[in-house]
Amino acid sequence: MPLFEFLDEKHPLTGRLAMSVEYDGTGYCGWQRLKHAPSVQETLETALGRVAGAPLRVLCSGRTDSGVHATRQIVHFDAPVPRSEKAWVFGANANLPRDVAVRWVKPVPDDFHARFLALARRYRYLILNQPSRPVLERANATWCREPLDAPRMHAAAQALVGEHDFSSFRAAGCQSKSPTRHVHFIEVNRYGPLIAIDIQANAFLHHMIRNIAGALVSVGRGDRGEGYLAELLAMRDRARGDVTAPGCGLHFVDSVYDERFDLPREPLGPNLLAFLGEWTGERPLPDTPMVRYRRGEAGARHPAAVANGVD
Fold first, then answer.
1. What is d(CA 205, CA 246) in angstroms, rounded to the nearest whole number?
2. Nearest 10 degrees: CA dihedral of 28, 32, 33, 38?
3. Residues carrying an active site annotation
4. Between vectors from CA 72 to CA 118 and to CA 156, what angle results, nearest 5°?
5. What does the alpha-carbon distance between residue 223 and residue 130 come to, in Å, rounded to a whole number?
6. In the prediction, which pLDDT does 1 show?
7. Kind and range of the H or E element at 82?
8. Residue range 8-13: average pLDDT?
9. Is pLDDT above 90 for 44?
10. In terms of Cα–Cα distance, which of 198, 296, 286, 186 is closest to 249?
11. CA torsion, points 181, 161, 163, 127, in degrees to nearest 10?
């Protein structure tokens, strides 16, 4: 997908649609619709409902916490009425507040599911490492005034790569049935005063990345050794873990799907890291049972069945 692309206004789109959404999560209590607080889901559904002239429900690739941002949150919905590509995108954006925007919309097969068919999710956690508090970046990066050793943080983080029990990094109220997740890669790099923790996995537990970031900051400051993340992982006990890093530094930047859906590629966010030049979906995926199963490969079985030896 080029950076600038013509939006069709002649051909109405019907059936199941996939959509990419960007948002600043500062003013929201996360993605999921709530009765007592503003959510990104409710805001988007209200805007799309006005375009359609009928209520509709959207399902996302991965729920984000309070204050967390996204540059490529993939959602899907079943269009209650036909509208052109331009009408869906421009109409939604005309009805959305300034901190939420639709980037594109695309027809997908009826079996597409934003959550259950995602092969990987990718986040970037940004830390502004400088003596003075940030001003322009205060809402989208965490501030650390003490000097951080990024190479040391990167070395410590490699203990998390692969499939592990991440109980030490899940929130106490996490509702996931299993603490096991497969981290595809995790990298920590410094770009001037900015430190970026770049992590991709098949999925994440509640607060998992923010808890990892909190532990890595302790390593970067020199409070803990390079083996600290491996030690926490082996404990499988959140009560013995480190602090939870603030939500403002976390950005949901990619959700990867099988190539058959042909979803648009776009520059990987956030724009603070646009100079890296990477686009979505560029990293190779590991050959795992979950990836094979969700790709629909012949003979592939659900990972739970593989683990239990069940057909």
1. 16
2. 0
3. 65
4. 75
5. 18
6. 57
7. strand 69-84
8. 92
9. yes
10. 198
11. -10
